[in-house]
Structure formats: C-alpha cells, structure tokens
C-alpha cells in the first residue's frame, strides 16, 4: 500500500503588507469599469464582453519577467482565435521593478518579447490609489493576504466570458504548465541533511530514501506560523486535527538562522522573492523519490490542488 508522508516544520515568519483604505467596488462584472491603455486611451471593459480574459500585473525588472512574458505571449498566440484576451497592467509597487514610463515599458516589452496582447497604463494594485477594476478583482478573488492584497508581480486573474473573475493564480504559477524535466542539475538531495523532529530527536533525512526505493511515497514539506513550544504545537495539532504525519522542531526558514535543509530547498526552487525567501506560511515543496525538489507551491495553494502532481510522482 502506498503512503504519503508529510514533513511539517513549524516556523516563525514575519510578513508586512499595506492595507488599502479604499473600499472594493460592488459592481457585478468587469464590464462596468473603464481603464486607460498604455497609449493613454480610455478603454471601456465592455469591449471584452463574451471573451475570456487573463488580467496580470506585470513588472519589467522582476526575476519572473522572461518566463512570464514569453509564456503569456505563447498562450495568447495559441488561444486568441478562440476568444482569449490578455490584459497586462504594469505596476511599480513591488521593489520598484517597473520604474519606466508607459512609453518606455511598451517599447521594451514589444522589442524584447514581441508582445501583441493588450498593455495598459501603469497602476497601483494595492493601497489608496488602487484602480476600481483591481478593487473589484481582489474582492471577488481575495487570495490569502488580508483585504485581498496582491502579493507580488504577475498575479493572474482568469475572468470568464460573463465578466466574472473565476480564478486567481499566484505569481509563481506559469501561464503554460511546466513539463517535468528528467535531468537533475546537482547530485545533492534532501537525503544529505539532518533535521530535528518535534520530540527533539535528530533525524537523518536519508531515512526517507527507503520509502522512495520501495515505491511508497514522495515528500511534502509544509511550514506554519507558530508561537508555542514544540510540545504545545504537537499536543494542539494532534488533538485538534488527529495528525499522524511527521512533525519537526520549530525552525527559521528565512534569515541567518535558516536551517541547511531550507537553504537547499530555496536554492533549488527559489520562487519569486529575492534569494528564494519563503513568502508566508504554508509554502509547500514537493520532493521526488530521488530526494530532488521538483515543485514549489505558494501559500494559497490548497494541498488537494497538488494532488495531480503528487499522484504523478507516486506513479514513478
């Protein structure tokens, strides 16, 4: 019988964000809004009626920019004839990664990425100056941060033909699904590390190698914010949730005290924050049977939405 093992490392993680003062719009669909395109023209969103829209906040100097623009254009080329429209809104609110003027942004992305989808005037997506369209999108698909805050560049909203936002995808979700690579860039794996479990015992992670060799499971790693002691955490989660998977000692996942295992995980799958920083609680790393990190899922991805990836690895 195949079993799925989870390693759970409680951690303390500080996240800061700005709270918007402007109330979200209560309009019924995106067609009620007007926006300004990158050439300064007013655009009524009703022009997108009966089309499927992917609305994205973009930034030219972000580490994700190459893969995002290339894949967004590929997606548009493939599906535009069937009614897909991509609406890209430049935003400079995340580490000043979109400092240029509208004219400079347009010239850069059209020259470098051959962009043919719709580009719009640079906007704010959080705070007092958030445009009404984004207030509405965040209200309908709030994500995991308070007040629906946009967490970073390249958050993607998928809007149906009825003008209603149906899905919200985090920055690290590629527009085109990744094809799993068979190559491994390093011989290092999680089996080279030790970790301390929640009872204070030193655990050699090579113990999980046998699980893979006997075709039983891959590993999921989950983090959570925890003020209590290891003993308090263990008692709480076992009593309340009947936890039977593996729990580990409370750790730091960012900063100078980051344990070696997490340094390795962030190096292999850096995500979208500088230096691979863990952005929030419940970031999940999926490890294959060889001990190689293959996928990183953001905080907002429910574990059950990872099931296809898990089943694919379990079948290998």
TrEMBL record:
Region (Disordered): 165-184, 296-316
GO MF, one annotated term: peroxidase activity
Region forming the signal peptide: 1-18
Organism listed in the record: Paragonimus westermani
PANTHER family: GLUTATHIONE PEROXIDASE, PHOSPHOLIPID HYDROPEROXIDE GLUTATHIONE PEROXIDASE
PROSITE patterns linked to this entry: GLUTATHIONE_PEROXID_2, GLUTATHIONE_PEROXID_3
Keywords: Oxidoreductase, Peroxidase, Selenocysteine, Signal
Protein name as it appears in the record: Glutathione peroxidase
InterPro entries reported for this sequence: Glutathione_peroxidase (IPR000889), GPX_CS (IPR029760), Thioredoxin-like_sf (IPR036249)
Similarity remark: Belongs to the glutathione peroxidase family.
Gene Ontology BP terms: response to oxidative stress
Tree of life domain: Eukaryota
């Amino acid at each position: 019988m195949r079993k799925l093992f989870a390693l759970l490392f409680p951690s303390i993680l500080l996240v800061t964000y700005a709270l918007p003062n402007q109330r979200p719009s209560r309009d019924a669909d995106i067609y009620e809004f007007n926006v300004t395109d990158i050439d300064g023209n007013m655009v009524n969103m009703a022009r997108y009626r009966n089309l499927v829209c992917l609305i994205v906040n973009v930034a030219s100097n972000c580490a994700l920019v190459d893969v995002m623009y290339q894949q967004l254009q590929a997606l548009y080329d493939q599906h535009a004839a069937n009614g897909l429209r991509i609406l890209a809104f430049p935003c400079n609110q995340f580490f000043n990664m979109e400092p240029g003027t509208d004219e400079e942004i347009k010239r850069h992305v059209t020259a470098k990425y051959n962009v043919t989808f719709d580009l719009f005037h640079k906007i704010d997506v959080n705070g007092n100056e958030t445009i009404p369209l984004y207030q509405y999108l965040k209200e309908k698909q709030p994500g995991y941060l308070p007040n629906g805050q946009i967490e970073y560049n390249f958050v993607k909203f998928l809007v149906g033909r009825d003008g209603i936002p149906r899905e919200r995808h985090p920055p690290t979700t590629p527009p085109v699904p990744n094809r799993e690579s068979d190559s491994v860039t390093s011989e290092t794996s999680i089996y080279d590390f030790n970790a301390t479990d929640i009872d204070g015992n030193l655990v050699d992670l090579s113990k999980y190698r046998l699980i893979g060799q006997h075709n039983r499971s891959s590993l999921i790693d989950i983090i959570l914010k925890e003020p209590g002691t290891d003993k308090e955490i263990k008692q709480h989660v076992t009593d309340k949730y009947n936890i039977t998977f593996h729990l580990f000692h409370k750790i730091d996942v960012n900063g100078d005290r980051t344990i070696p295992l997490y340094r390795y995980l962030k190096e292999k799958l850096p995500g979208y924050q500088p230096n691979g920083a863990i952005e929030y609680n419940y970031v999940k790393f999926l490890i294959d049977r060889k001990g190689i990190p293959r996928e990183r899922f953001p905080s907002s991805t429910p574990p059950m939405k990872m099931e296809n990836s898990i089943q694919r690895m379990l079948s290998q």
